[in-house]
Amino acid sequence: QKKYKRPITGKCLTSITEIKTSIRSHCLPVISARIERKTQRTAKKWSAGVSALPSRPLQECELPHALEPPQWVLGLPGPEHPCPLTPEVRWGRCGAARASRQSRKGARAGTEHGCVLGGGGRAGRRGEPPGFAQGAGIRQQLPGSRVRGSCPGGGPRQGASSARPASHLGSLGRAQNVKQLYALVCETQRYSAVLDAVIANAGLLRAEKKLRPHLAKVLVYDLLLGKGFRGRGGRWKPLLERHQARLKAELARLKVRQGVSRNEDLLEVGSKPGSASQVPRFVRVNILKTCAEDAIDYFKRQGFSYQGRASSLNDIRALKGKCFLLDPLLPELLVFPAQTDLHNHPLYQAGHLILQDKASCLPAMLLAPPPGSHVIDACAAPGNKTSHLAALLKNQGKIFAFDQDAKRLASMATLLARAGVSCCELAEQDFLAVSPSDQRYCQVQYILLDPSCSGSGMPSRQLEEPKSCTPSPERLRALAAFQQRALSHALTFPALRRLVYSTCSVCQEENEDVVRAALQQSPGAFRLAPVLPSWPHRGLSAFPGAEHCLRASPETTLTGGFFIAVLERVEEPSSGSQAKAAASELTPSPAPKGKKRRRKAAAAPGT
Q1: Residue 528's pLDDT band (boundaries 50, 70, 90)?
Q2: Active-site residues (predicted)?
Q3: pTM of the predicted model, to two decimals?
C-alpha cells in the first residue's frame, strides 16, 4: 500500500488469506503493467536499431553479437529466464520490485566485498530479469546506448549506480580499459610482499578499520608505485591522502634497509623482470587452418614489426612494443613481448592461433608421430597439446584423448572444434582404467602422458605464491605415486614405440624420480632417448642417463617451468637375423678341397 500509493481495500483485513488475495488482485496488475510498458519501450528501441541497419547484406565478420535481442524482450521464454510478461514470474514474491531490490543489495555487497574495481554502472532496473543489467560476463548493447562495464573475471557485475562511482579507478572497470585493470592487478601482485610490509609498518589497517586488506594493497600500489589517482579515487582518495606521508616514509625506510635505490630492486627473485613475470608471449600457428607465413603477413598489416627468426635468447629478451620474432626451434611458433594481449585477436578467436607456451609445445614436437599414426593423449584436457598432435598428424590417423573431468572435457571439445581437429576421439575415462589389450588400441605406437602435477613451474603460480611454490611433502608423495602408476601403465601397451612424459613441475619427486622408478619396473624394455642436445637446461643427476631429460625455466629458457622425458622401446633383434645366427653356429666347417685330400691319402701309406 505504501509502495504503490493505492489503498488495498476499504475494510480491515483480519486473515492472512484475505491479505494475500488482496495483494494479488491489486499489486500484481500494477507490476505487470509496468513490466509490459518497459518491454514495449525496449522493443521499440530494438526495432529502431534494426531498421537503421544498411540495406546491403552484412558480412559475417560485421554482424555484432548483440544484434539479436534477448529472449525476454521478445516475450519468449529463454533458456535462462522465464517470460517476464506474466504474473507467474518468480524473481520473488513482489516480481520486478524484488529484482530491483536484489540488484541494489548486490551493488552494496559488491562494494563491501572488494568488487569495487569494476567502475561505475547501474543496478538492475525494473522489468529486467536478474542478471541482465549485471551482465554475467556477457554485455548486450541496445542501439543508441552505450555499453556498461562488467567486473573482470566473467562473474556478475555488482557495481554501484553511475552517479556515484564505486571505485577509485573510475572508468577502469569498463571494457575498453580492461587491459589497464589487468596490468594494475598484475603489478600489485608482483609487489605484494613490499606492499604488505609498507602497510603493516605504517599501521594503515589498524587506523582504518573499514579498509579491506586486498583493497588497501591496490590503493597503496596506485599511490606509491603506480601513476597516482589523477582525479580518481572517490571516497578512498581522502583516506589515503591522510596517510600518504607515513606510507612514503615507510617505503623509503624499506629501501634503506634493503640497500637499494629503485622500487624494482625491492622485488623478490621470482618477481624480477626476466623471470616468471617476463616470460614472452608464445603463439603457435595452427597449421590445420593457416601457415606461419600468412600469420606473419597478417600481423605486419596490423602494424606489427617482424624481426625475423631469433638467433638467441637475447633477441627474445630485447623484444618490445609491437615487435615479434619466429622461434628458432619450432617453425610455427611466434614470439611476442610479455605484455602482448591476443585474447581478442580475430585469428585467435577463429582458431588460427593458439596461445601456448613454448615448453608446452615441446612434448608433441618430440613425440613426432607421422601422419596416419594412432596416438594416445592420456591426460588430455585442456587440449592444447592434443590440437598440436592433430596438426602434426595433419588430421590423418587417430588420437585417443582421455580425461576424467567432464567440464574440462567439454571445454576441450570446443577448443578442438575451433582449431579444426577432426581425428580425435574424446573419452571421459580414467587412463588407468584403459586396457592395453583392447583391440581399439592395438595400433597405438605413440603416447603423450602429461599427468596431473603440482604446477610449481607455472609462471602464474610463481607470481601468486612466490614463497610457497613447492607443495607439501604429503601432496608431492601422492602426486608422484599417481604419476608413477600412470607411466608404468602406459609402458604396457604392446605396440608402443615412443612415449613422452611431461609435467609443469620443477620438483624432482614428480620428474626424475618417477622416470627412474618406471624404467626400473621394465628393465631393458625402454630407454631414455637423447633429444635436443643443444638444449641448455638438462635433467638433474638423479640416476645414470638423466641428462637426456629436458628441463625448462624462466631464467634459462624464457619459458614456464617444465620437465620432459622421451622414452623409446629398445629394438630387439629380428627373428630372421636370430635364425641366421643360430644356423651359422650349428653348421659344421666345410670339408677340405680335393687336392688336400689326395695329398693326405698319398702320404698316409708312407707314415
Answers
A1: very high
A2: 504 (nucleophile)
A3: 0.58
